[in-house]
Amino acid sequence: MRTGTPSPALPVDLSEARRVAVEAAEAAGTLLRSRVDGPVDVRPKGTAGDVVTELDMAAESLILERLRASYPGHRIIAEESGILEGAPGEEMVWLVDPLDGTNNVAIGMPVYAVGLALCARGEPVLGVVHDPVTGRTWSALNGGGAQGPGGAPLTLPERPRPGRESNPVLAWTQGHQVGPGDAAAFRLRSRVEAGCARMLQLWAPLVGWAMLARGDIDGFVGYLPEIVDLPAGALLAAEAGAELRRLDGAPYELGIDRPPAELSFVAARPELLDRLLETAAGSAPAP
């Protein structure tokens, strides 16, 4: 994935937008953390095994209220509310995932995150990932690097953790529309898993992206991922130093208007990327 300095003509101060997004994500995280251990009303969402809870709705409502207060003209694409139009011709679009990892929360597993991204003309310029469990927040600006908790610079460690040079730890994600009978997904996941020490399937992609950005894992593979949480996490990892490619090795262009088939990805530490692409190449679905 290529990142660069956003156009100076952007009609928004990205430093201020980062502050607004971080505060909204952290407020949503506080709400989630205060209620996640109580009774949670879980309802089916669609026919692919996804679920939604009142926590998703409450956290999203809080975030939307704050975004609308600061940027009333911006468009918003929210996980639960869908597309919320802004001013006519508005090119700034927020993507909001108020609770990435709802299935985990539904079974009492504390692995979830809040994600926000701001896109300009379809391309992400700001990403925020907040982990309510630990209270930590990570953010990135396109071409402006990544930050960890407290605003400290975030970059990948120069080397993987000891013992992982040839035995990487990876994460896997796939979209809710990918069914158990998807042969391409099965082949790809099986080949990737066979070539690593461990492969995590977290059900919370934003957690995986933050782990990659910190160097906790070495790579991340996604097959037909969900668009609402993709830009925030991918931008964070790329600005921290990870490299992203499409499954066929082509450059990864992260735009919210791209077709689903072009959103599948391989992301990794730079020195691992070619090896991971070779592993995926034999099983990647035809474009």
From TrEMBL:
Compositional bias ranges of the Gly residues kind: 142-151
Residue ranges of coiled coil: none
Biological pathway: Amino-acid biosynthesis; L-histidine biosynthesis; L-histidine from 5-phospho-alpha-D-ribose 1-diphosphate: step 8/9
Keyword Metal-binding: yes
Names of the cofactor(s): Mg(2+)
GO annotation (BP), single: signal transduction
Annotated spans, Disordered: 141-168
Gene3D superfamilies named among the record's database cross-references: 3.40.190.80, Fructose-1,6-Bisphosphatase, subunit A, domain 1
Positions bound to Mg(2+): 79, 97, 99-100, 229
Catalyzed reactions: L-histidinol phosphate + H2O = L-histidinol + phosphate
EC number per UniProt: 3.1.3.15
InterPro entries xrefs: Inositol_monophosphatase-like (IPR000760)
Protein keywords: Hydrolase, Magnesium, Metal-binding
A Pfam family annotated for this UniProt entry: Inositol_P
GO MF: histidinol-phosphatase activity; inositol monophosphate 1-phosphatase activity; metal ion binding
Function of the protein: Catalyzes the dephosphorylation of histidinol-phosphate to histidinol, the direct precursor of histidine.
PANTHER family given in the database record: INOSITOL MONOPHOSPHATASE (PTHR20854), INOSITOL-1-MONOPHOSPHATASE-RELATED (PTHR20854:SF4)
Protein name (record): Histidinol-phosphatase
